[in-house]
């Protein structure tokens, strides 16, 4: 399903994803071939590049500013007021990592964790609304929270994002699962960004050819058939087909 890039996302809706990478140029080659993305630096701050699908923004790749930072994909949830939401998150047992801070004239961002330590972002839109396309091959389609405490997560995120998750017409693109459903018990709580592909087996072959690896082979989930992979720099993400 194509989305108009000018559309607004309600609070609690996944609205953006970025990858922090040691080598952005290598990331452009990997994701460009895997998903058919094109890239430009127009309006993208801090040396990052925007990934586009048919001209619409679908993600960004950013250079790691500190080698100690993880190589990782981060999902951002929309909010009309990042400062107020960060206060609610910390009051509920989460933690503020950074922000909220202005991102050029595009909006304001913050990085936070839930009480179990899963990292996610907040995005308060100004000039940049978020995904221009989603739910279609080559675009974001889902994010899954893997946590040791799914019931506690349901309470935490339900209180934060009740309308997005449970309101009329809710389209959350967001699920919760026990870590041991897919990952070893020692894996920390985390969000896993999913991109849709038309042919999962063909996409996995491309990942391997480009130097990535299959972290979790294909399995059936309630929201589609999924495989967890890493890119050629170690950032984990999922491929999903429906």
Keyword list:
242 residues; alpha/beta; 2,3-Dihydroxybiphenyl 1,2-Dioxygenase, domain 1; six-stranded mixed beta sheet; 14 strands; 40% strand; disordered N terminus
Summary, kept brief:
By secondary structure, the chain is an alpha/beta fold. Helix content is 20%, strand content 40%.
Commentary on this structure:
It is a single chain. The protein is an alpha/beta fold and 242 residues long. It has a single domain (14-241), classed as 2,3-Dihydroxybiphenyl 1,2-Dioxygenase, domain 1. It is 20% helix and 40% strand. It contains 5 helices and 14 strands. It has helices at 24-35, 82-91, 150-160, 162-166, 200-209, and strands at residues 14-21, 38-40, 49-53, 56-63, 72-78, 95-103, 107-113, 119-125, 140-147, 174-178, 190-196, 213-221, 224-230, 236-241. An 8-stranded mixed β-sheet has the order 2-3-4-1-5-8-7-6, covered by helices on one side. Strand 7 (107-113) and strand 8 form a beta hairpin. The longest helix is centred in the first third of the chain and has 12 residues, at 24-35. The two termini are 13 Å apart.
């Amino acid at each position: 399903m194509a989305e108009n890039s000018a559309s607004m996302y309600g609070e609690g809706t996944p609205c953006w994803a970025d990858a922090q990478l040691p080598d952005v140029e290598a990331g452009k080659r990997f994701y460009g071939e895997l998903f058919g993305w094109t890239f430009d630096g127009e309006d993208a701050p801090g040396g990052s590049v925007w990934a586009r699908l048919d001209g619409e923004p679908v993600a960004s790749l950013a250079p790691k500013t500190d080698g100690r930072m993880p190589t990782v994909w981060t999902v951002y949830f929309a909010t009309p007021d990042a400062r107020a939401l960060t206060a609610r998150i910390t009051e509920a047992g989460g933690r503020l990592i950074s922000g909220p801070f202005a991102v050029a004239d595009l909006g304001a961002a913050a990085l936070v964790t839930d009480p179990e330590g899963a990292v996610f972002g907040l995005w308060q839109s100004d000039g940049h609304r978020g995904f221009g396309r989603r739910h279609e091959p080559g675009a974001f389609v889902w994010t899954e929270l893997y946590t040791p405490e799914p019931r506690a997560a349901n309470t935490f995120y339900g209180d934060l994002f009740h309308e997005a998750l449970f309101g009329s017409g809710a389209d959350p693109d967001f699920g919760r699962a026990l870590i041991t459903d897919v990952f070893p018990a020692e894996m920390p709580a985390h969000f896993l960004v999913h991109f849709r592909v038309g042919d999962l087996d063909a996409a996995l072959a491309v990942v391997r050819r480009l130097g990535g690896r299959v972290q979790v082979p294909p399995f059936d989930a309630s929201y589609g058939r999924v495989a967890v992979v890493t890119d050629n720099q170690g950032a984990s993400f999922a491929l999903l087909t429906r």
